[in-house]
C-alpha cells in the first residue's frame, strides 16, 4: 500500500509538535518543497541528525511517474539541499558505470567506524552521478546510523542518526 501525500501529512501533524523548531521549516514545509522539485508519491519521511555537521534535516523518499525512487534532503530552512536517485542494487548500469569500490569493502569501512548490525543497504546515485552505498547500522544501544560510503573512493561521505521515520520500509 502506497502512502499518499495527504495521509503522510496527517501522520506528520502528530510529529510536528515535537520536531518543529522555532523559526524553522516543518515537515509539511519540506513535503511541499519536495513536491515542487520532484513530482510523485511520497513513500517515506525520516528525521535525521547529521553528525558531521550537527544539523537536523528531513529525508523524504518519493517515487516519480516512471517508477524511479528519489531521496531528497530538506534542511530546517525548508531548502532542498541534496537529491539522490536510488537504484535496486550495485549491478544497475548507472551505479556500475563509475563504481570502483566493492560493497564488501565499503561495508567493512562503515562497520569499522560504526560497529553493529547492518539492517539494510541502499544503492544511491548522487546528484553529480557518483554512486554510493548507504548502510543502515544499528549499534548495541539501538541507535541507527545511516553511513554513506562513496563507491568511487571508499571514503565515508555522510553519517546521520535517525530520529524517527514514517511510511513504507522495504
Describe it.
With 170 residues, the chain is an alpha+beta fold. It folds into 2 domains: 1-86, Nuclear Transport Factor 2, Chain: A; 88-163, Roll (Nuclear Transport Factor 2, Chain: A). 24% of the residues lie in helices and 41% in strands. It has 4 helices and 8 strands; from the N terminus they run ααββββααββββ. The protein has helices at residues 5-19, 27-37, 93-96, 103-113; strands spanning 41-50, 55-63, 69-75, 80-87, 117-125, 131-138, 144-150, 156-167. It has an 8-stranded antiparallel β-barrel with strand order 1-2-3-4-5-6-7-8. The longest helix is centred in the N-terminal third of the chain and has 15 residues, at 5-19. Mean pLDDT is 86; it is low at 1-20.
Number of strands: 8
Which outline best applies? globular
Give the uncertain stretches in residue-range form: 1-20
Strand content: 35-45%
For this structure, the CATH topology of the largest domain is Nuclear Transport Factor 2, Chain: A
How far do the termini sit from each other? 12 Å
Strand order of the largest sheet: 1-2-3-4-5-6-7-8
Named at the architecture level, the CATH assignment of the largest domain is Roll
If you average the pLDDT, what whole number results? 86
The major pleated sheet works out as: 8 strands, antiparallel, barrel
- C-alpha Rg, in Å? 16 Å
Q: Can you tell me the number of structural domains?
A: 2
Helix content: 10-25%
Query: What is the H/E string?
Result: HHEEEEHHEEEE
